[in-house]
Amino acid sequence: MKHPEEGTVHAWLDGALEPDDAQALETHVAQCAECRAMVAEARGLIAAASRVVSQLDGVSAQVMPAVPRRAAPSRVRSSAAPRNWWRYSGLAAAAVFGVVSASWVSMQGSRAALELRTEAASVREPVPVGDRSDNVVAAAENSAVASAAPVMASGRASETSSERKSAAPRVAAARVAAARVAAARTAEATVVASRAAESSPQRLLGPARSRTEALPQVVVTSASGVAAITAAPVLPSTMPPSAVAASMIASSTMTGCYALSPVVLVAGGTAAGVTSAPLAGASAARSSRAQAAFAAPASPASAPLLRLTDSLTSVAIDARALNASARDASTQFSAADASARERAAVAYIGYASGLVPRASLMSDAPTGNTLVRWSALGDDLLRVHLLNGASVLVRVSPDGNRLGTTLPRADFTARRTACP
Amino acid sequence: MTDEELERLFRLYHLPLVRYLTRRLGDRDWADEVAQETFLRALRQDTLQSERSWLFAVATNLVRDEARKDTRRRARLQQLTIEARAEGESASQSLQDDEPSAERARERALARRAVDALAEKDRLALLMREEGLDYREIAAALDLSVGSIGTTLSRARRRLTETYEAMQADASPRQGEVNEAS
Q: Which chain B residues have a beta carbon less than 8 Å from that of A7?
């Protein structure tokens, strides 16, 4: 098989290839380092693009001047439906958060807990992110779209007042429909949350354990041959903690150089065991943004160093290592003020599309990293700010959780330092 | 289309459609109206064989149609967007206490610019994909061949990412510089 085109790789990652083609590509990729790199890069691009697009959410209403655009009928969505969707969003986010966490922690064998509560919005609700319904949608047929085009072409111009009047009862029906949908949303949210919990990847859950190791030198540059472990589906289940951390870092918004403390993967709120896991030869995947070169673990005398020029994707901060007064942990690593906020532990929320229902709130990108903002409210309580403006209270406790999922934690500290 | 069918359609597609339109237009009100109009059009159809791609195609065409007809309003939107960006930048500089929201606003403005910088079909394909449309649905909605969607999406994703990164670098000149903490 020839090396695949980039578009083919994206189609493969998007699940759009025919089974035979997908199998052939998978076989080829398994044998071709160059193509593996291309696949990893494509994963990174998919995740990055998804993140950028998701930043468009939560756009304030009435950016446009309130001029009458047309004789449009009353809004279907002016019912209570979307407002209830807000709560729905929070619940589903919490559920997905748990599932996402589980998918990540399962690879690490960590175990913790979540208690999630939704919090009402104080501003007009943005459109929830990723509340996709494609899992219940039948495959499309082109003909209907083709038939729609003429309707569109002539639609507004040919619309008469009588047609509008005749449509009025239907509009009323639409309102009723919207109200019914709204009424069902709350209950549906519970269902979604439940389903999300049920769908947690038990098959990947390993025994709960903790490992500690010294973080090796991690150098990330913006040069070409990139290495960033970003693809949860291809991560080995026994990936060492430092690789997990490197993955977090490579996905972070950190820039500059950082001295890192030992990485501790925490299970159930406790840490035990020390493992020294060399990263030389560890899995390396490409992304478009960063290159992480993994060396052997640094000696105790030499401070581990992290150099980052990467600027995409997400970092979530573990509350336990934060000053409780930290208002928004996500700014810990922003370039503008990093020197003033040197300490943080990073918890990474991994994501694997194959493990999360497509009706998730996040992203259907194979490696979409969830961008959330965490505010420490206490030792075990976080407020998670989603991109769509929602906030969710997350309580971490050491013994299981209501969703039946697990929460990964990988703690380390990063102290900004001079680059050599 | 029956009321039951309308309800089902609305329940399934209203939210993703509004989100798609909001991302496309940058205005929730406008997105709501276009979505509403789209469902009205659907009401007039006896049947929809490919309902999701039909809805997205109609919504996309409505936006396109409206934009063509009303350049004045589009210019106004651009002006307001610029003002909003300026306000966001001002806020990020002057309101330390509101840094997270200001930062989010800045990132959102960057994302908007980056998305707007994409070619129209690349942008629409990407936004539809983000709403979960499969390749066949995207192809149908945009009148493209299914085989071209992968290339379209890969190009869109790469350009979006690169553009966004470049804009981020421009907006944060200190980013990447060495900061000494001690």
A: 148-155
Cβ–Cβ below 8 Å for B108 and A58: yes
DSSP string, B52-88: HHHHHHHHHHHHHHHHHH-HHHHHHHHHHHHHHHHHH
For B57, what's the count of Cα atoms within 13 Å in the CB-facing half-sphere? 30
Beta-sheet strands, E only, within A20-173: 115-118
Q: Do A331 and B100 touch (CB under 8 A)?
A: yes
Q: Of A196, A184, A192, A200, which Cα lies nearest the Cα of A89?
A: A192
The residue type at B33: E
Q: How many Cβ atoms are within 10 Å of A212's Cβ, its own excluded?
A: 18
**Alpha-carbon distances, residue A43 vs A13, A56, A118, A131, A149 (angstroms):** 7, 21, 31, 21, 34
- Where residue A408 falls (left for φ over 0; alpha for ψ -120 to 50; beta otherwise) is beta
**Per the domain annotation, does B63 fall within a domain?**
yes
Residue A413 sits at the chain B interface (C-beta within 8 Å): no
B residues 56-75 lying closer than 8 A (beta carbon) to A: 57-58, 61-62, 65-66, 70, 73
B-facing residues of A in 83-112 (CB < 8 A) are 85
> What is the residue range of B75's domain?
71-110
Please list, residue by residue across A122-155, b when 16 or more beta carbons sit within 10 angstroms of its beta carbon and e when fewer do: eeebbbbbbbbbbeebeebbbebbeebeebbeeb
pLDDT digits (tens, 9 = 90+) for A285-333: 222 222 222 222 233 333 333 332 222 222 332 222 222 222 222 222 2
Domain count for chain B: 3
Both B76 and B55 in a single domain?
A: no
Q: Which amino acid is at A348?
A: Y
| A62 within some domain | no
Same domain, B81 and B106: yes
pTM listed for this prediction: 0.42
Distance CA A214, CA A237 (A): 19
CA B100 and chain centroid, separation = 23
Same domain membership, residue A178 and residue A50: no
Size of the A and B interface in Cβ pairs below 8 Å: 337
3-state secondary structure of A410: strand
Are both A189 and A318 inside the same structural domain?
Answer: yes
Domain that includes residue A19, residue range: 6-54
- Give the rounded percent of residues in chain B with a pLDDT score beyond 70: 73
